[in-house]
Amino acid sequence: MIFDLDGTLLDTIADIGNSVNDILKEFNYDQRSIKFYRDNVGGGIIDLLKKALPNDHGRPIDVYIDPLDRFYRLNLNKSAKVFPNIYDILDELKNRDIPIAVISNKPHEFAVECVKEFLSEHIDITIGSGDKYALKPDPESANHVLEIFNVDPKQCFFVGDSGFDIITARNTGMKSIGVLWGLSNEERLLKFDPDYLFNEPSDLLKFVKNFAI
Q: pTM to 2 decimals?
C-alpha cells in the first residue's frame, strides 16, 4: 500500500501555508488564507507558490526558491499532526506483513523528515519530489516502489486525497483509494473516478481489517 503524505497521513496544511505566507510577507505581497492553501495544495510546493503569488509579481520564480527553502525548513513539523486512526491503519498493515510506502510531491528531504518525525516505525520507503523522481501523477516513483517490493500492481493500493494520487494509481495499474479527511472534497475527487472513496480514517481502517490475504 502506497500513501500520499500531506492531507492523507499528516495534517500539515498550517506548516505549508505559513511557509508560503512568509515568502509573500517578505516580498510585501498579500498573504493567502488557509482555505486557499487547502484548495490549491497537491502539485508540489513550487506549483503552490506560483498559485499564491500575485499575477503581476513580475519576478522570475527562481527568485523565490531560496526563501521558500528557508521558510519551509523553519515551519516544518511545527503544527503538523497525524490524523486520527492512522497509526491503527499502519499497525494493521504491518501485522499483516503488507509493505508500506509514502510517495509525496513534498520535496524529498522534507518528506523524509516528516516520516522520520511521525511515522518512522511504519514506513518502509519514502519518496518525495526532486531531481531523482518526477512529481505525481508521473508513475516513475510508484513503479520504483513496486519493483522494490516485487509486487503485482493489481494487488496494490494507492491512497491519497488528490487527483494526483488517483491518476498515479491509474498510471501504474494500482487500485486507487481517495480520502476526504484531508485537503479535498467528494465532488472534486469523484471527478477522477477513484476505485474507493472513504470519508474518515476509521472507514479506511475497517477496509484494511477486512482485507482477504
A: 0.90
Cβ pair 31, 21 in contact under 8 A: yes
For residues 7 and 182, the answer to whether their CB atoms sit within 8 Å is yes
Question: What is the predicted pLDDT for the residue at 27?
Answer: 95
User: Tell me, what's the pLDDT at 132?
Assistant: 87
Residue whose C-alpha cell is 493567502: 32
Question: Residue 3: beta bridge partners?
Answer: 102, 159
Complete domains list, the chain, with CATH: 2-11+80-209 (3.40.50.1000), 13-75 (1.10.150)
Encode pLDDT of 130-161 as tens digits. Answer: 888 889 999 999 999 999 999 999 999 999 99
d(C-alpha 36, C-alpha 41), whole Å:
8
SS3 content of the chain, % helix, strand, coil (to 5): 50, 15, 40
pLDDT the model gives residue 152:
96
Q: Rounded to whole angstroms, how far apart are CA atoms 19 and 27?
A: 13
CB-based contact 51:40 (threshold 8 Å): yes
> DSSP 3-state assignment of 103?
strand
